[in-house]
Design goal:
Layout (H helix, E strand, L loop, with lengths): L1 H21 L7 H12 L6 E6 L7 H11 L3 E6 L6 H6 L3 E4 L10 H12 L4 E4 L18 H10 L4 H15 L4 E4 L5 E4 L7 E2 L6 H4 L9 E3 L4 E4 L7 E10 L5 E10 L2 E6 L4 H9 L7 E7 L23 E6 L13 E6 L3 E4 L2 E5 L2 E2 L5
Parallel strand pairs: 1-2, 1-3, 3-4, 4-8
Antiparallel strand pairs: 5-6, 5-16, 6-10, 7-9, 9-13, 10-11, 11-12, 13-14, 14-15, 16-17, 17-18
Helix pairs in contact: 2-3
């Protein structure tokens, strides 16, 4: 009898292991992802590429991308993330800058980001961003915990109907221009603003030179994969209302909960929190830019949904109907707020209306805007 129970236990254990292995993370298709990057660029023979990569993060992607680009007659330089004292000289001979994924140990330094921004502002080239790990975020805008589930999701999110994505974005952009935009959440966010004729950044996966030559602002030359968001800097003086943030990590990861930011004419006039109010005050005081309303972002990618059981959002909130409302410098979006600092805040459960007509209801696009 004991032997039978033991055999049954072994059989159940083996069965459980088999089920687990059947659902284990699929290998990342590096060649396929490389092809997606190159396809998005619509490269021309003779273009010069600077390829940045992290040997510790999705390392096989670098040779796969380089091979495809070289086969198309492009000159490709590669450079690890980290110190790059000759970055300006490299950019002076570059048409395309590619950001491959980097881990937490390989961020791009502030001085390099400034050089890259100036290069883009001068219209000397275009970038394609494939951040991957760094795109997984907490709703408070800080980095989330990336997992194999997100890997699989990002693989799927580059294989979408780009024409359908672009058409849906155009339809919503046209609607957002028609009047007062109102964003509300169950937690109490209720803010209104207008976008007027401010330019929209439309991330639809097109990183061609023909597209970026029409850029109206810096981020129009920074193309993201996975694609999916539209971004705009609303007319600052029109932003009035309240942002309610359930919790957020602030300076040195000090936490505040029940955050309430009240805006009048685009500036915070009152900031309170149920806990951590001093930490909130210190954070807002750390840069004058944090007192300004910055941006509306709205995601469209149907594959970038929150995985079951996860509190983190995939790829910077580019997923279907995710709203990003942020504080700070919006000059990259052709806005009027400078100062350098910015802070993203994500809201996956909003209702968005324009002159009372609903675009998003409870975190889902209404049928007319799908």
């Amino acid at each position: 009898m004991h032997m039978r129970k033991w055999l049954l236990s072994v059989a159940l254990l083996v069965g459980a292991l088999s089920v687990g292995s059947a659902h284990s993370a699929a290998p990342i298709p590096y060649d396929h992802l490389a092809q997606r990057i190159v396809d998005a660029l619509h490269v021309t023979k003779g273009e010069r590429v600077l390829l940045r990569y992290d040997p510790e993060t999705l390392a096989p992607l670098e040779p796969a991308v380089k091979k495809l680009l070289t086969a198309k007659g492009l000159t490709v330089e590669t450079l690890n993330y980290g110190p790059a004292p000759d970055l300006q000289a490299r950019l002076d001979r570059t048409d395309i800058y590619i950001w491959l994924p980097a881990g937490e140990k390989a961020p791009t330094a502030a001085d390099q980001r400034a050089i890259l921004a100036a290069w883009l502002d001068a219209g000397k080239g275009r970038q394609i961003h494939f951040h991957w790990v760094g795109g997984t975020v907490d709703p408070d805008g800080k980095p989330g915990v990336h997992s194999a589930a997100f890997d699989q999701q990002y693989v799927e999110a580059v294989d979408i109907d780009y024409a359908k994505l672009s058409a849906a974005q155009d339809k919503v952009i046209a609607k957002l221009r028609t009047g007062e935009v109102r964003v509300t959440t169950p937690e109490g966010t209720d803010i209104r603003f207008t976008v007027g004729d401010r330019p929209f950044n439309k991330q639809d996966g097109d990183a061609s030179k023909a597209r970026t030559d029409k850029a109206k602002m810096r981020v129009d030359r920074e193309i993201e994969l996975p694609a999916g968001v539209i971004r705009v800097a609303p007319i600052e003086t029109t932003a009035t209302g309240v942002l309610v943030v359930p919790e957020a990590r602030l300076l040195e990861d000090a936490k505040a909960t029940g955050i309430r930011l009240e805006f009048v004419n685009g500036r915070i006039t009152k900031a309170t929190a149920k806990t951590g109010e001093e930490a909130l005050e210190a954070y807002l005081a750390s840069s004058p830019a944090f007192t300004f309303f910055r941006e509306l972002g709205l995601g469209f990618n149907p594959k970038l949904v929150v995985p079951p059981g996860s509190k983190y959002l995939p790829y910077y909130g580019y997923g279907d109907a995710v709203v990003r409302l942020s504080l700070g410098d919006n000059t990259e979006l052709a806005g009027a707020v400078g100062g350098g600092a910015s802070r993203w805040l994500f809201f996956p459960d909003t209702t968005v209306t324009v002159n009372g007509d609903t675009i998003v209801a409870n975190g889902r696009f209404v049928e007319a805007y799908r």
